[in-house]
Amino acid sequence: MAPRPILSDTDVTEERDARSRLRSIDSRLKSLGEKRHDLIVEMRRLSEEQKALYERRQVPAMEVERLYSEHGEMGKRLAALRAERIAARGALERAVVALRELKLSFEPGERVRPEQIRREIAQLELRQQTNALPLPEENALIAQLRQRSQDLKVAEARTQVVAEHDRQRKEAEARIAAARAEVERLTAELSKAKVDRDAKMNEVRGKLVDAGGLVAALRTKGKERSAVMAEIDAVSREMRDLERDGRRTLGEIRARRDEARRTVRAYAPRRGGSGASAAAESAAEAHLQELLKRGKVTLSG
Prior knowledge:
This protein has 301 residues and is an all-alpha fold. It has helices at residues 9-105, 108-111, 114-130, 135-157, 159-267, 274-294. Helix 5 (159-267) crosses helix 6 (274-294). The radius of gyration is 59 Å and the shape is rod-shaped.
């Protein structure tokens, strides 16, 4: 049989190194694939936890909105109470002024009651009977008794006028008392409303703290998820680089095989006729495939 060409030692070494590199790439790709799978599982877990935190955050957020709305209504109620108290204080001041003006409208004689004059007369008579007074003082006392007796007659004659004045005065005093009571009621209600509004604001702050904690947890989970995604991207880039290197190495191996195949095909026809050439080519092709399976391309005689 005619001798066959043998690949150089350099080609054999490159073939062996290429196959070793492919095995290394395949091993690394398998390891990276497992790592990426674990990272994807971790990312899905973090995504589920993020979703759960977001759903939990919705509850305090809605509660805060409700409390804010109630706090706003309380503020409106406080403003209304302040306006009502201002109006009540104005009414109280007007009632006090009206009473003063009413008292000033009464003449001094009209405000004196018969009972008061009778008490004064009784006191004067008691003084006259129990004291020995000089003549001038006794005459003055008698004159005063006569004057108060005349005043008593006038007062008794004006009883209806005095009664009317008393009624008006009592009504004015009643209006003052009612106005003062209204001011006190509004003041107490305003104080209670302020306490309730402050308590509502404290409740809002508490809910905001809860919501803030959930937001912080969401951000932490987001950062963890971003880190995992970055790691997944890095692994994916490395896998793409390895696959590209593997395809390049495999292409070199295939090119080397094709070159060996063309060499065998070019060598075989020079050793016989057309029929013998076809048979030799077929035998050489089979021999080459067997060598390729073994991992070593050596064409020998």
